Amino acid sequence: MASKINFISEITPKRETWKIKVRIIRLWKTPGFEKPSEEYSIEMVLMDEKGSKISATVKKSHVDKFSPLLLENEYRIITNFGVGQNTGSYKTTEHPYKIIFFFSTAVQSCEDLRIPRYGFSFVSYDDIMSNKLDDTILI
User: Fold this and answer.
1) Where are the alpha helices (DSSP H) in 31-131?
2) Angle at 77 between CA 28 and CA 24, to 5 degrees
């Protein structure tokens, strides 16, 4: 298990051991397509002390394990997770990668890290209207 605390900006798929301290600034659960009453995944946006953000996903097979451990606005230390490409038509962060929870991923509570509650990244109205922004990233 990684002992050094890493920052989100360092995360790439080139390593297998990471340890991050983050605040869960946004969390939502997606329903199953065939069974809308069942949770299909947990999706999150995590932010570290430097203000860097990354998306994270807990797939259906691990939702029951992690659901009680992952709470919006809480601080966590997360280790032993996978890193994959951040793809899709509407990405929640600019980070090129996202975190994928494994059954062996560890989640622990931690002290207040002085991470803002909201991770807003404001853009100018002119940039929005002139289509200068990457339209695959939510603003």
Assistant:
1) 63-66, 125-129
2) 25
Residue 130: C-alpha distances to residues 18, 91, 124, 136 (Å): 39, 20, 10, 15
User: Helix (H, G, I), strand (E, B), or coil: what is residue 107?
Assistant: strand
**Residue 21 in tokens:** 């301290």
pTM for the predicted model, two decimal places: 0.85
14, two tokens: 């080139």
CA proximity to 53, closest of 137, 119, 129: 119
**Rounded Cα–Cα distance for residues 2 and 78 (Å):** 10
CA within 13 Å, CB half, 112:
3
CA distance 98 to 90: 13
**Under a CB-based contact definition with an 8 Å cutoff, are residues 73 and 117 in contact?**
yes
Q: What is the pLDDT of residues 93-121, one digit of tens each?
A: 889 999 999 999 999 999 877 887 777 77
